[in-house]
Design goal:
361 residues, alpha/beta, Alpha-Beta Plaits, GMP Synthetase, Chain A, domain 3, 7-stranded mixed beta sheet, 4-stranded antiparallel beta sheet, 30% strand
Length: 361
């Protein structure tokens, strides 16, 4: 149900519409304009709200500047305050020294906002959540991170600090839409560029294995942007597969993306050995443990692995490059070229998620 705007009784200037702009400017110059109330238009008349009854001198100025007007009392709706940021929303509500501790970045997954609450703001987290709802009108739920990404399903603990407890949403990215609930499945909007970067490298006719597919941001974008591809999308989380199937239908890629529930190693060994031109390994915490399965999945002639891993220090990219080359070598195959390497994002101080693309024979 739409919330009704409360009406406030106030003095006003009633003028013909053609004099409205002039009346507003004159009232503002005389410090008479009530900026907390909205100007009303009724038929051919404009009602300009005032802060009070004009004094004699200001009334004389109005008569000189505007040749046709009346002073009346009228009911006006309040003007909604435009909040441009959570800082604006919290000015005057938080102690001044705490404004500097407000989160500088917010992740948006569809209509859900996710942020990290610093320890010093813990007692004010509900206030911060309400400020996010004020500043970003499309947001329906605000989640605060309350744990690290962990477990076999790669889930993070969240607390709803404002808005709806229903955190299922639709996230849109590169023309695709993804149904998901961030409290039930892993999804990172910060990987948007990676999804596009990998999809752009795929060639028509390829078979791709997405070993840790989640709700399908790699798999579905690839299928959506190529006519003749087959993508086997594996995930061990039943909720992720449930959303993946829904997203396959929503994006009209039925038959091109094949969802598989289970562990990636088992799925490859049972049905996907030696069929892939390309393997995506977006499981930075444990991808190294699956390199053998990825190499088994590649065709005998070889293929490409998109490998992701966390690493610390200034030489993080070099560390990850060396680890994937060594791990591939242990399977009896060889990395014949490093096609690309980059830092994807910082996940903690001096800890990075690194992407390395390698060509394997």
């Amino acid at each position: 149900m739409k919330r009704e705007t409360p009406l406030v009784e106030a003095y006003c200037i009633r003028v013909p519409k053609y004099l409205g702009e002039r009346a507003i400017k004159v009232a503002d110059k005389l410090d008479l304009l009530n900026k907390n109330l909205r100007v009303l238009r009724v038929g051919d008349w404009l009602f300009v709200p005032l802060v009070g009854e004009p004094e004699k001198e200001k009334l004389a100025t109005l008569k000189r500047e505007i040749n046709q007007f009346e002073i009346l009392i009228q009911e006006f709706p309040k003007r909604e305050k435009i909040v441009k940021s959570i800082f604006n929303a919290l000015e005057g509500k938080l102690p001044q020294h705490l404004l500097a501790a407000l989160p500088r970045s917010i992740d948006f997954i569809g209509e859900v906002a996710i942020l990290e609450i610093p320890r010093e703001l813990e007692d004010y987290k509900r206030l911060v959540g309400e400020a996010v709802l004020q500043a970003f009108k499309r947001v329906k739920s605000v989640l605060a991170k309350s744990g690290v990404t962990s477990g076999v399903y790669r889930l993070r603990e969240y607390e709803v600090i404002a808005g709806s407890e229903d955190t299922e949403t639709i996230h849109r990215e590169y023309g695709c839409k993804y149904y998901l609930d961030p409290r039930k499945v892993y999804f990172s909007p910060r990987l948007s560029y990676e999804h596009s970067r990998v999809a752009s490298q795929v060639r028509e006719g390829e078979t791709i294995i997405d070993m840790f597919a989640g709700v399908g941001p790699f798999s579905i974008l690839i299928a959506k942007t190529h006519r003749n591809v087959t993508v086997y999308a594996i995930d061990i989380n039943p909720e992720a597969i449930k959303y993946l199937k829904r997203n396959i239908r929503a994006n009209n890629v039925d038959g091109k993306v094949i969802p598989i529930l289970g562990d990636a190693k088992e799925a490859v060994n049972k049905r996907l050995r030696g069929i892939a031109d390309r393997v995506i390994m977006n499981l930075p915490e444990k991808a190294i443990e699956y390199v053998n399965a990825a190499c088994s999945a590649l065709k005998s002639s070889g293929g490409i692995i998109h490998y992701y891993e966390f690493a610390r220090g200034t030489d993080a990219v070099k560390k990850v490059r060396n680890r994937i080359i060594e791990a591939v070598g242990k399977t009896g195959r060889n990395v014949v070229a490093v096609l690309s390497e980059r830092i994807v994002k910082e996940v903690a101080p001096f800890k990075w998620q690194v992407a390395v693309d390698v060509k394997v024979q």
